[in-house]
C-alpha cells in the first residue's frame, strides 16, 4: 500500500493550516537558540489522532528539531519523526511527525511545542502570535516560562500608509485581528475525521487575519467541515513579493499547487484577495506593476480554471473597501468596483464580503465598527462578520466536490 493510500485509509484531514512564507527579510523576530516555541491553534474538525507538518520551505540552512510535543486540553504527548525524537529538515523540505494518540474535538485548542536547540533563523513562518520560552527544552511542559516577548509578527497595515500601526487587540473587538501562527508549523491534521468537505481559503491579509478560523468556530461539530487558512499578508494574485518584502509571499498563481492542491482532501476553494494587486503599485511598489482590470480578472479566471480542473467547488469573495486615502488616488476605487462587478456577474459562486463590511452611508469605506485602525483591514468584529457571511454561504453549497 502506498503512503497516499495509507493516508486515505486512516482518514487524515487538515484541521488547521497556514501558508508559510519567506520571513528572512523581516527583522521583527530574533533568531532562536536553545528555546521552545509554543503555538496554540484552533481545530476546525475533530479526530482520534493528530500529527503535524513542520516546514523549512524558506531557509538557507537545514533546521534541527530537538523535540516536539502536541497538547490537547492540558494533556501532552511527545511526537517522534520516523520513530526518532528529533529530526533535521533540509532546505526546502518539510517533515511530518508520527501520529500522536490524542483525541481532538471541533474547537479544541491544539498546542504545538517545538524545541530548537541550535541557532536557528526565523525564516519559514506566518501567523501573527506565538510564544517563545526562556532558554531550555520545555516541549510538552505544563509550565512554560515565557521570555516576555510574545510575538505579534506581522503588522498587516504595512501594506498601506497608516496613522496607527498598533497591534494590540481590543476587548471590544475593535482592534487588530491577530490569529495564532508561528515558525515552521504548516499543517495540523487529524485521523478518523470523516470530513465531509475540506475548504481551503486562499487570499491575502484579511484572510490571514482569521475569518476562516472564525468560520470554523461557527459551524457545528457534526458538520465535519474543515476550513483551513492559506492567507498571506501582502500577497497578490499575479505577482510574487517584491525583493525588499519577501514575506508577502509568492503570488496566488505561483503557490496554488502547493497551498491548495497539496492540501490533503481539499474539496472547496475560496478565493478571497484584498486590493494588493492594484493598491500597492505606485505607493509601496513600482507603478509599472499595476495591472489592468482585464489582467487581474484573467488571474482570477486562471485560479478558477485550475481548481475546477481538479474537481473543486470554487467560491469568489468580493473585495472590501480601501483606506480612504488610498482609495482616493486616481483609479483605485474604480478598479475595486470593476473587479467586484465581475465577481458578482461572472456566474461563479461568490460571497459578498464587500456588502458585509462597507458603510451604508459611504459604500467606498468600511463601516467604522468593522474597521481596523488602518481602515483597510477588518478588525476582530469585521473578521467575525466575514465568518458569519462565509458560514451562511457554505450552508448553500454542495458538500461534494464539483465535477471537473
UniProtKB/TrEMBL annotation:
Top-level taxon in the UniProt lineage: Bacteria
InterPro entries xrefs: GDSL_Rv0518-like, SGNH_hydro, SGNH_hydro_sf
Name assigned to this protein: GDSL-type esterase/lipase family protein
Domain named SGNH hydrolase-type esterase: residues: 201-384
PANTHER family per the UniProt record, alphabetical: GDSL-LIKE LIPASE/ACYLHYDROLASE, PUTATIVE (AFU_ORTHOLOGUE AFUA_2G00820)-RELATED, GDSL-LIKE LIPASE_ACYLHYDROLASE, PUTATIVE (AFU_ORTHOLOGUE AFUA_2G00820)-RELATED
Amino acid at each position: 500500500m502506498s503512503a497516499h493510500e495509507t493516508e486515505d485509509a486512516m482518514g487524515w484531514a487538515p484541521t488547521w493550516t497556514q501558508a508559510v512564507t519567506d520571513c528572512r527579510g523581516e527583522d521583527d523576530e530574533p533568531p532562536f537558540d536553545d528555546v521552545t516555541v509554543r503555538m496554540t491553534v484552533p481545530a476546525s474538525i475533530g479526530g482520534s489522532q493528530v500529527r503535524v507538518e513542520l516546514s523549512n520551505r524558506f531557509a538557507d540552512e537545514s533546521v534541527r528539531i530537538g523535540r516536539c510535543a502536541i497538547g490537547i486540553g492540558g494533556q501532552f504527548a511527545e511526537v517522534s519523526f520516523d520513530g526518532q525524537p528529533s529530526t533535521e529538515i533540509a532546505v526546502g523540505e518539510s517533515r511530518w511527525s508520527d501520529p500522536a494518540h490524542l483525541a481532538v474535538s471541533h474547537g479544541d485548542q491544539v498546542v504545538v511545542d517545538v524545541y530548537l536547540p541550535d541557532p536557528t533563523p526565523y525564516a519559514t513562518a506566518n501567523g501573527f502570535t506565538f510564544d517563545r520560552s526562556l532558554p531550555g527544552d520545555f516541549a510538552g511542559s505544563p509550565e512554560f516560562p515565557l521570555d516576555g516577548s510574545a510575538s505579534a509578527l506581522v503588522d498587516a497595515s504595512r501594506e498601506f500608509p497608516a496613522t496607527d500601526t498598533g497591534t494590540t487587540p481590543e476587548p471590544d473587538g475593535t482592534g487588530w485581528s491577530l490569529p495564532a501562527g508561528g515558525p515552521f508549523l504548516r499543517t495540523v491534521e487529524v485521523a478518523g475525521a470523516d470530513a465531509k468537505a475540506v475548504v481551503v481559503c486562499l487570499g491575502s491579509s484579511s484572510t490571514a487575519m482569521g475569518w476562516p478560523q472564525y468560520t470554523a468556530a461557527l459551524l457545528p461539530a457534526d458538520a465535519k467541515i474543515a476550513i483551513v487558512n492559506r492567507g498571506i499578508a501582502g500577497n497578490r494574485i499575479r505577482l510574487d513579493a517584491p525583493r525588499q518584502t519577501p514575506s508577502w509571499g509568492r503570488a496566488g498563481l505561483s503557490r496554488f499547487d502547493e497551498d491548495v492542491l497539496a492540501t490533503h482532501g481539499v474539496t472547496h476553494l475560496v478565493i478571497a484577495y484584498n486590493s494588493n494587486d492594484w493598491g500597492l503599485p505606485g505607493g509601496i511598489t513600482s507603478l509599472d506593476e499595476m495591472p489592468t482590470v482585464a489582467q487581474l480578472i484573467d488571474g482570477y479566471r486562471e485560479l478558477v480554471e485550475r481548481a475546477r480542473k481538479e474537481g473543486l467547488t470554487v467560491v469568489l469573495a468580493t473585495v472590501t473597501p480601501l483606506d480612504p486615502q488610498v482609495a482616493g488616488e486616481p483609479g483605485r476605487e474604480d478598479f475595486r468596483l470593476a473587479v467586484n462587478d465581475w465577481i458578482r456577474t461572472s456566474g461563479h459562486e461568490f460571497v459578498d464580503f464587500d456588502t458585509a463590511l462597507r458603510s451604508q452611508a459611504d459604500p467606498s469605506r468600511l463601516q467604522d465598527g468593522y474597521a481596523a485602525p488602518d481602515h483597510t483591514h477588518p478588525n476582530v468584529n469585521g473578521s467575525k462578520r466575514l465568518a458569519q457571511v462565509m458560514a451562511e454561504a457554505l450552508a448553500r453549497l454542495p458538500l461534494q466536490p464539483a465535477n471537473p
